[in-house]
Each structure stands twice: as C-alpha cells, then as structure tokens.
Design brief:
The complex is a heterodimer. Chain A is α/β, with parallel strands linked by helices. Chain A contains 18 helices and 23 strands. In chain A, β11 and β12 form a beta hairpin. Chain B is an all-alpha fold. Chain B contains 13 helices and four strands. Classes of the chains: A alpha/beta, B mainly alpha.
Chain lengths: 524, 325
C-alpha cells in the first residue's frame, strides 16, 4: 500500500527535480485507504466553537470540495491542517499514519501545500523569488543562489499554467489576479501530495480559471489530492469528486458527486427548512434618505439602491462580492467613477467629512483598525466624530465631553468602568457600541453597518439588534451588511443581493429568505 | 488579464538608465555645476578627497540599507562608530596588538548589534526607539571610557593603513568598493538576501515558508553593527586619534544617503546601489560648497534641500509612470 515511499521533504529542497516523486498508490479505486484523514478535529476560540469533531477523508487523485457558508469553519479547518492553528482535540493521519502538524514547516514536509486566500507574497521580491521563497537551496551553486536556474524553473511552472508573466517582475507590480496566479504557482512548485485551495478563483478571470481547472485535472491524474474550497456551485459540480458540507463548525454531510442536487446542497448549507424563520415586525418606512443611480467605482458596477427613513436594508452576498465596497462608496471613502449619489434629496457632498456632517455614519467591518482608536479611552472615541458639533467654537471642554460621554454610555448600555477606560480592554460588543455612540453623538441619520455583530457574543448581538431597532424607530435609515443569513433575514425589511461586484437581486417581504439570498449570491 | 503591465526590473543597467533616480539626476547636475563654477573641483586631489569622504559614509550607509530594507532603522550607528574607535584606541594603548584591538571592537559592536536585533526582532519593539536608547548607551560608555577627551598617541600603524594605496587607489576606497561587492552578493545572490527583503515586505510569508524569520532579522542587525564597528578603524586612521563623539550625526547622514538613493522605509523596497548614489550626492554637495567657501551651517541647509528635492523628483516620476501605465 505505502510502497515504502518516503514522504518528500520539501524543506530540504531539490524538490523541483524530483517531480516524479509523488507517492503512487497502487490502485485508484475508493477501496483504498484515504491519503489524508482528519479525525475528530475540535477547535475553540474564546466565545466561538469553530470546529466541532470534524472528520474528513481525502483520497489521492480526487478533488474533495468543502462547501459552507461564511463562518462555517472552512478557514479554521485549513489553518489547522497547515499547522497555523493547533487543534484542541483530534489528529491528522497520512496514509494511515498519525502525524504531527505543529508548524507550517511540518505540513510542507508532509507534502501538504496551501493556496491561501490572503496573499503571502513579498512585494519587492520578483516572481521567481516568491515562488521559491524558503526553498532557494534547490538552486545553490558555489554557495550562491543560481538565479538563472531559479528563473528557468519558475518559467516552466508559469508556462504550465499558461502564464506569460516575466519571472523578474516584482510581486508589487502585479494585479490581484496575477498575484493569485503566482500564489497558485508557488503551491504547485512544492510538488505537494495534498494541495489545499481556498477559493482560488475568487479573484481571477474565467480564462485563468479554466487554466487552473486543467491543471487540477493534470494533478489528479498524478494522484495528487486536492482539497477545494469554493462557494461557486458550477465549480463544485464540475470539479468535486466528493463534497463535504460544513455548517457551524460541524460536518453536515459528505457525499459523492451527483448524490445531491444543487438545491439539496444549498439546503444543507443553510441547515433548516426555509419555512422556520423568525417573524419580522413590518416597519412603515418614511421619506427616502439616500438613493444612488448607476454608481460605478474601480470595484463596483452600476449600483442603484434606495434607502428610506425608518427601515433596515440588507446588503447580502458572499465575502468579496462587493458589499463593503458599496458602503465605502456611499460614505465617500472610495471615489466613484460614474453615477450619482443623492443624500436627503440633494447631491451628496464629495468627502467623508462632509458626508458625516450631512448625517452619514459608517461602522466599518474592521472596527479595531478603522472604527476605533484602540489605545484611547471611551470618551476620546465616543466624541471624536462630533467634536465639530459639540465644540463648534474650537475650544475643548473636558467637562462637557465627560457629560456627553456619560449620556451615551447610559443610552447604549456600554459596560465600561467609566469614560476613561481604554477601549481595547472592552469586549467586542461594547467596542461596537462605542462606535455606534460616536455616530449617535454626531447626529447621524443614515447608518452604514458593515458586519455589526462580527466577533461579538450572543448577548451583545441581541443588544445590537435592539439598538438597530431603536435607530430606525427614531427615523434613521440603516444599511446592514452581514455574512450571517439568519441575521439578515431577521433584521432587514428588504435586502439587495450582490454577486461579482454588482447587485443581482432585490428581496423584500416574504421573498426575503435565506434560500433566496443564497441562490442569488452563489454562482450558478 | 494581460501581462502588459509595465513591470519594474530589480537591478542592473536597464533600471539605471530607464529610471535614473532623483539622486542620480541631482548628482549629474551638481557635478556639471561645480565644474563650471570652479574647475578645481575636478582636480585629481579633490576627486580623491570626494572618494575618501564617500567611502567613509558608505561604510555606514551600505549596512544601513540592509537594515532599512527590513523596515528598520539604526540610530545608534554613529554612537557605535565613536565607541568602537575608542575601544580600538584604548586597547592599543593598553599594549594589545592591532588585530586583537580590532577584534575587540568587532566583538563589542556585534554584541550591541545583537542587543538591537533581539529587542527589535524577537520582542518586536520599534527600531526607532530601541536604537535611540542604545545610542545613548553607547555614547555614554564611550564618554566614560575617555572622560570625553580624544584618545591619541597609539601606534601609527592605523594611520599608515588608512593612507596606503592599492594601485594608486587609496585603501579606504578599495575597502568601500569591496564592501559594496560583498553586500551586493549577499543581497542579490544569496538566500539570506531574499529573506532580508522578505522581512520588510511580508515577515509572515517568510515564516509560512518555514524560515526562522526572527533569526534572520537579528542577523541583519548583528552584521550591520559589526561592519560599522570595523569601519571605525578607518575613521581613527584619518586623524590618528579616537574621538568619543566623532560619529554623532553620521547615522543621519547615512540614513539620508540611503533614502536619497531611492530606498523606501516600507515593504523592503529599495536597492543597494541607491546608497552609493546618495552618499556620492551628499559628499559632492558638501565638497562643492566647501570649494565655493560656503558657510558650513548653510551646507546643512543645502543637504536638507537636496533630500527634499530628490524625493520630489522621485514622487513626480512615480506619478508619471502610473499615468503612462
């Protein structure tokens, strides 16, 4: 069974010239033992049970697709497999042998390579140097790196992928799709036996995707096992020999191709019958606060939406579909190339500072970086967006800031020791409330909330929902981005669904269901 | 998706000609200007002088380039120069041999480099603050060792070494060229060179590639300080005495040279030859102004202006390239 084939040690280099060194399994039938097994993997983070007893069998020469909503645990699973996270329980087996993957170096020594979603390129190394980073020893001559040999080897890998890039270009000068392709080349160059691809087609064009699929077919012929993560139904059905569906950190089902229809898979991702939704109280919206006509930016095409006073409007779609870009364009943080944004009946002013004065508020996705000044205290953070208003003369009054902050703390129920507690010591939910407080103080009437409940616990979520209700009751308009479909369906009066940087659907009333959103959001 | 994006090359003549950095342009301009105004500028004596001054600056600016490529900085370089010189002088006075004295200075410098490196690489402290601290430390030790006075009266062998020549080329210039060649090989032809650039560009990527990134990071500081410590020997050879404060300010001149040459403080973007251009530009400016008998305080103003001008030129060129793309 194992042929005594030694596991290639990629760290030692020389891997390029050993490309025939895939451990060949005797037969290709499923009766074989799996090449890679994850057994009972369990992983918790503070407040989140990310992986629940996940077991997975990956066979040589197969594409094993992992399907799941955002937050289902796919990324955590990969990071555990690659040694970036340590599992709390469970273990990994390769060819029936238990192995220890404590560090990324262990994983590559075992022949596991990962194409990450976040790019791991070094901007001012060239393409060849990036592909072979850490494995330069393979090109050693007189103790120096044989640059010509390295570029020649990189050339072969790029040609294989049908890429005509100059191997001497800096990664910094590549576009996103080009960088993604270099990531793929980097992983391929490791001659891995197990190749993990985390949404490899999210950033590349159709033509490049086709090349990638051809490469995948060639690799599976060579008995490489592919773990493929994607949302795109078309790819899942085209590539997947075996499909495992994850939901809330647990394996829902693991099936062979064609055993389940697309509708059944979507159903398994969502998890509950579509009828069992929480009831929504219908709201009575008022005047339009904001509307856009055919807004396009570098990353968006033809966005036309309308937000009324007193309603919550969802922006649904998969990660990367352009939701965050929409709120950034609305807020004036990204320039728009064409189209029109109108705020309270007149043309929206150009820059974020003037949109804030006109009543706009943005609660960014990354609150720690963009929403708060973490080392500063509650008072500094809560008053920063309204200083122009509360201290119009230019003179600062600590006493007034103190009073205002106390009022906000009471109004929003922020659990802080006082106004001077630094916000990095607050819980996620309370931090989010401080961001909201900042905008309440600024007198906002249109709230753009990008993943408002990310990383907050269940209790804080309920409070944030309550605050959103209060905002709309007070006549504000609210836009919510969320990757959690139940949350969107429960919270919103209606929702726009995005795919590929454009709006592909609008759902309101009874039409607004998790299934309807997901069917619009995934690639057909 | 096309590959027709204009792509920048890493090193070599193509880049030099295709995109002469601001420092290079200004250098050519200054050479022409000073020659026109006073032909004595291109006399052999003066050119050798420029070469010697540039060499000394390069001894700091070359290792400083490696450090800046890691998104780091070494403000303690000037203080180390003073301290290391004092150690050589005191060791010679105590009867040590020349090599033993140099080895002592080398060892002390490497230890201080390791101190900087451990604090910056392993404890992730900001390089600016760490080296500001060690700068004070080194300067203090040099002053304590000497009571603040210059140390002289040791063997003239050091001065002889400084003044000797290799085929009519003064030895300090030979040493600087050799150092450039060695560091060029290190940076562009060894694995370590890639890792240095990777630390500044994406240290996590280096870690994920299975490399002990912190160790490489530390090594850059040790190597940098060791080179700087050894170059103190040249500095004390020039006057045959060691001044504890001789290097004060040289760290800024070296950093200015590196930045002037087009190396960025971010993402590991930069090139070694930039330090040569920058050091030459600063030295030529200073030398030319001397010949024109311009007051030394005004010279400082001019160096500041040179730096800002070079940055403006580079910025304008970058925007031009972007628009053309």
């Amino acid at each position: 069974m194992m042929h005594g084939t030694e596991i290639q040690n990629e760290q030692g280099g020389g891997s390029l010239h050993a490309s025939t060194g895939f451990a060949p399994l005797a037969t290709g039938s499923e009766a074989d033992a799996p090449l890679l097994r994850l057994v009972g993997i369990d992983k918790s983070f503070p407040g989140v049970h990310a992986l629940k007893n996940v077991s997975l069998d990956v066979y040589a020469g197969e594409v094993h697709v992992i399907l799941g909503q955002n937050g289902a645990g796919k990324s955590t699973l990969i990071k555990t497999l690659y040694g970036a996270y340590a599992a709390d329980r469970g273990h990994i087996e390769i060819e029936g042998r238990r192995v220890s993957v404590a560090r990324p170096a262990d994983a590559s020594a075992l022949g596991i390579a990962v194409i990450f979603q976040e790019f791991s390129l070094v901007p001012y190394l060239d393409i060849a140097q990036n592909i072979f980073l850490g494995r330069e020893a393979a090109f050693s001559r007189f103790g120096l790196v044989d640059s010509a040999a390295m570029h020649a080897a990189a050339r072969i890998i790029l040609d294989d992928l049908g890429l005509d890039y100059d191997t001497r270009s800096y990664a910094a000068d590549l576009g996103v799709a080009q960088q993604q392709m270099v990531e793929i080349a980097k992983a391929l160059s490791q001659n891995a036996r197990v190749l993990v691809m985390d949404e490899p087609t999210a950033a590349i064009s159709e033509r490049e995707s086709d090349r990638l699929f051809q490469t995948i077919a060639r690799l599976t012929e060579k008995r490489v096992a592919i773990v493929y993560i994607s949302h795109r139904m078309k790819e899942v059905q085209m590539l997947g020999d075996r499909i495992t569906i994850l939901r809330d950190g647990a394996v829902v089902t693991s099936v062979l191709r064609d055993q389940k229809s697309q509708a059944e898979m979507v159903g398994a991702m969502i998890g509950r019958a579509s009828g069992s939704q929480l009831a929504r109280t219908p709201r009575a919206p008022g005047e339009p606060i904001l509307f856009t006509r055919d807004v396009s930016t570098a990353k968006l095409s033809d966005i036309s939406i309308e937000i009324l006073a007193g309603e919550v409007v969802g922006l649904a779609g998969l990660v990367g579909s352009g939701r965050t870009e929409v709120v950034r364009a609305l807020f004036g943080a990204d320039p728009i190339a064409s189209g029109e944004i109108s705020l309270s009946g007149s043309r929206a002013p150009a820059t974020p500072d003037r949109r804030v004065r006109a009543g706009m508020a943005l609660l960014p996705e990354d609150r720690k970086r963009e929403g708060l000044a973490l080392p500063l205290d509650v008072r500094d953070n809560a008053t920063v967006a309204s200083l122009w208003r509360s201290f119009a003369s230019g003179w600062f009054s600590p006493a007034k800031a103190e009073r205002d902050t106390r009022g906000l703390i009471a109004q929003l129920g922020i659990a802080a020791h006082g106004t001077r507690q630094s916000v990095h010591t607050l819980s996620g939910g309370n931090q989010q409330k401080v961001v909201l407080a900042k905008w309440l103080a600024a007198g906002a009437k249109l709230f753009l909330l990008d993943e408002p409940t990310r990383g907050v616990d269940v209790g804080a979520k309920a409070e944030i929902y309550r605050l959103i209700d209060q905002l709309v009751e007070g006549g504000a308009g609210v836009v919510v981005i969320s990757s959690e479909l139940p949350e969107l369906v429960q919270l919103c009066d209606r929702a726009y669904v995005m795919r590929d940087h454009r709006i592909v659907g609008h759902l309101a009333g009874d039409q607004l269901t998790e299934r309807a959103i997901l069917e619009l959001a995934v690639h057909q | 998706m096309s590959a027709s994006v204009p792509l920048q090359r890493k090193s070599g003549i193509a880049q030099l000609l295709g995109a002469i950095p601001g420092a290079g342009l200004l250098l050519i301009l200054m050479l022409a200007l000073f020659t026109l105004v006073n032909p004595r500028f291109v006399s052999q004596t003066n050119l050798v002088n420029v070469g010697l001054q540039t060499s000394l600056l390069l001894m700091i600016a070359l290792p400083m380039t490696l450090i800046i490529l890691t998104e780091g900085l070494d403000l303690s370089a000037g203080a180390l120069l003073g301290l290391s010189g004092v150690i050589v002088a005191e060791a010679l006075l105590a009867g040590w041999g020349v090599f033993a004295a140099c080895a002592a200075a080398f060892a002390v410098s490497a230890v201080f480099g390791a101190l900087n490196g451990i604090l910056i690489a392993y404890l992730a402290l900001p390089a600016f603050v760490v080296t500001l601290g060690t700068m004070g430390l080194m300067q203090g030790i040099a002053l304590v060792l000497t009571n603040g006075d210059p140390v002289g009266g040791f063997t003239p062998a050091i001065e002889t070494f400084y003044r000797s020549q290799l085929w009519f080329v003064p030895l300090p210039i030979v040493i600087a060229v050799a150092l450039y060649a060695a560091l060029w090989l290190l940076l562009y032809r060894t694995r370590l060179g890639n890792y240095v650039i990777a630390i500044g560009g994406n240290k996590d990527a280096l870690r994920l590639a299975g490399i002990r990134a912190n160790l490489v990071h530390l090594a850059v500081y040790v190597l940098g300080s060791a080179i700087i410590g050894l170059s103190a020997v040249l500095l004390i050879g020039r006057t045959n005495s060691a001044h504890p404060t001789v290097g004060i300010g040289m760290e800024f001149e070296a950093i200015a040279a590196v930045v002037l040459g087009g190396t960025s403080f971010e993402k590991g973007q930069g090139w070694l030859f930039g330090a040569v251009l920058g050091a030459l530009a600063i030295t030529v400016l200073r030398n030319g102004l001397n010949i024109l008998s311009i007051d030394s305080s005004l010279q400082v103003v001019c160096i500041g202006l040179l730096l800002i001008l070079a940055l403006l030129i580079d910025q304008a060129r970058k925007q031009f390239v972007r628009r053309a793309a």
